[in-house]
Amino acid sequence: MRSALGEWLQVREAADWAARSEALVARVLTGAPSAGGLRVLDLASGAGSNVRYLAPRLAVRQHWRVVDRDAALLAAARVHLAAWASANGVAFRGDAAGCHLHGPVSEWTIEMCRRDLGSLDDMLFDGRDLVTASALLDLTADVWIRDLASRCRAAGATVLMALTYDGRVSCEPADADDEMVRDLFNRHQRTDKGLGGLAAGPGAHEAAVRAFTDVGYTVAAEPTDWRLDAGARTLQRPLIDGWAHAAIEMAPERVETIERWRQRRLDHVEAGRSRLVVGHHDLAAWLPSTGV
Fold first, then answer.
1. What is the C-alpha separation between 54 and 284, in angstroms, rounded?
2. Confidence of residue 97 (pLDDT cuts 50, 70, 90)
3. What span, in angstroms and rounded, lies between the C-alpha atoms of 86 and 103?
4. Is-cis flag, bond preceding 173, omega within 30?
5. Do the Cβ atoms of 277 and 226 come closer than 8 Å?
6. Which of 53, 65, 114, 127 has its C-alpha lying 20 to 30 A from 275's C-alpha?
7. Beta strand pairing status for 275-286 and 91-95?
8. Domain segments of the chain as ranges
9. Per-residue pLDDT for 207 more than 50?
10. Domain 4-168+195-228+279-290 fold
């Protein structure tokens, strides 16, 4: 049975891929090793969307270490990778430890690790050339981000962090309660998500820029906003529901006001007039020694 989180990750995948910075992907690839293959660590991999997005763009042999605490999501990642391989003429072989894919121009070994990322350890980073994650940093604490930067630096790894939510939300048509719900949601994003303490939330991107700069990285970033037009109903509905649910958790005394707001926004979705912009940033970071 698919989990609610697994369904959400699948619904958002197309918007994630459309928003991502191809320029930053190309930038980190300039320093990718060509001999011996590229060794990648993907943190909080979920159903493997980041792997399926990046692997075809990394035109070298690759070894991925994908990490998530949810066994069901790791199992889903294997299923999605098999389906992707079939659709793209890539040979697929899976076993209990992960899977192997072999295509016309490259091959990928995927090592799957079930691990709670509440704290990090050197074993995960050992030997990694590239450390990456998608839609993760805003769920983590400042101290976790600083620890991440230090461990990446110790490993000498290049870094690519995608789709960090930055607190910006714009809704059309505008509603008088949009700002109130957004502010409550942003407060909710700063609660403890189990990744080092109170989450950095909308401040995570800036915290990451500081953390990686402080340990000697050169950092580049680009806005990678979701721009959801009236046709993106399947993503807009759960997004609005999620905002409302989080806002009610933060201000239960306003439940009736928030529920009325939620219904008005959903009415706009059903009428085909809703447009949403959700702010994100991608971040790339590299060390002088990598030649990026």
1. 14
2. confident
3. 10
4. yes
5. yes
6. 53
7. unpaired
8. 4-168+195-228+279-290
9. yes
10. Rossmann fold (3.40.50)
